[in-house]
Write a structure and sequence with these properties.
It is a single chain. The chain is an alpha/beta fold and 591 residues long. It has 18 helices and 20 strands. A six-stranded mixed sheet has the order 2-1-3-12-4-13, with helices on both faces. A five-stranded mixed sheet has the order 8-7-9-6-10. Strands 15-17-18-20-19 form a five-stranded mixed sheet. Helix 13 (370-396) runs antiparallel to helix 14, helix 13 (370-396) crosses helix 15 (442-459) and helix 16 packs antiparallel against helix 18. The protein is rod-shaped and about 180 Å long. The protein starts with a helix and ends in a 7-residue tail after the last strand.
Amino acid sequence: MLRSLVLPFLILAAAAGGPTQARADTVRIAVLAFQGSERAAKDFEPTLAYLGRALPQHRFEMVPLDPDGIEQAVQAHTVDFVVTNPGDYVDLEAGQGVTRLATLESSDHAVPTDTVGSTVIVPNRPGHPTRFQDLAHRRLAVVSDDAFGGWRVIWREMVESGVEPEHLQALVVTGFPMESVIEAVRSGRAAAGVLRTCLLEEEIAEGRVRPDEFAVVAERTQPGFPCRLSSRLYPDWPFARLAGTPPELAKAVTASLLTMPAVDGRAWTAPQDYTTVHALFRELKIGPYAYLAHTTVSGFVRGHWQWFVVAALAVLWWVFHVVRVETLVRRRTAELTRAIEGREAAERVARQHREERDQFSRLGILGEMASNIAHELNQPLAAITNYAEGITRVIDAGRVDPAFIRNGARGIAGQAERAGVIIRRIRGFVRRREVKLEHLSVNEVVRETLALFEGQALLRGVPLSVQLAEGLPRIAADQIEVEQVLLNLLQNALDVMEGSPNKALGITVATRRTEDNVEVAVRDHGSGLTPEVQAHLFDPFFTTKPQGLGLGLSICRTIVESHGGHLWATNEPEGGLSMRFTLPVLAEDTP
């Protein structure tokens, strides 16, 4: 490498006492030789010759180096001035304190100082890449991974196009001179290569590249610029002094550079603004801005402030949404609470009305059974009278028989108890109370109901028959309500049997088990139901009785369904009607 040949000489000179001590009139100028030492001598020899003529007391010596060699020479203070690309200058300015004195300008450019850029070349074949995105997953040749025009300029353009270096298959580093990039693309080692602007045109002019051999990727138009390029342009190379260079020498060199006439269209002008170069380094987080790649809280916030604004707006929206939802929930909860309270109040009123209706229904049933109740009570009362009169006659006759009197008193007590049972049963049936679910035996409920009803049936000459299945499971029900349903069905059956030719067949009450239910059936031998009557049988206020209210069967169905059961009517083929209802058995009795 060029650096390995030149640097040992510079280090030996430094060991002998530094550039100003080895030879007081020798001034060493490090020049970046990206195309080799011969090309560097050709480009900058006119500048050194002019300085020699303008400042004859000094001998100006050019030291061609690559970027690493320039950095080491500056660190070792083996040179006095540096001529390099703008990217290397920004690095040296931040790290070594070098200061630009002048900027190279070209008279054939629209903007004389904006000449540094990059050109990406690919073999000119059908279907070749035309955009930076087409370079993804391909090999890209560069002269160095820290070269400015040879990589970093294109790196920025690719990143802004959405192609990160890791999206490439590989970065092929060819080393200096930059013409080796052309050979890497030509030989197939890489699919594309990065050149400094105008190098392609120089190679074509020298005959080393055919005009149609390569195509340019992402080519852009720059008015007044004579070369093809793939990037924006940056200020040209600076002429810079080291921090240890004597100020008088730096002042004299600067004055000479600014008065130097153009040679081959190139001259030196006042130092330009390298802000655009700093922007590139900042965006790529390299060089003096490498610290940006190390995330800190403040740096992260500065670098992603847009997202923090979006996040803050999202949080504000979420807070607003939560407050709004909370307000709506509270409002809806209050409305729901009022609705529930209103519904509960309505249910309480409805329950109260239903209890009153049931009470009226039971009273109506007892009204229809009044004669039976009177007959039931007359029997024990008549027996009590007979016992009392018999005892009185025995006492009046003076024939006091303790055994007779004791038997009479016991008879009176038994008949009084019988009358008391009848009265208590009637009071329990008509008393208003809360619904009370108990574990009941259906057969026992049927027997107690028939005890209230059988007297009335006997008075009308209608026989009762009972068919109770054995081993029925218990149910959870209100006994009075179940008795009310049975009494209503029995009363209806008794009414339709009045005057029926089949009156002697009587009424049958049966129980049986059906799956998870217990079924109770009341069968009469009347005329049955017509289709019209059957369609409205359970409608409120529908009745076929001249004095009926039409509430009995409607109340019965409500009671049965509130217990989880079902009530229905079936015409029997032999004549008559069966009214059936089911009640669910207790869970522990379900197989």
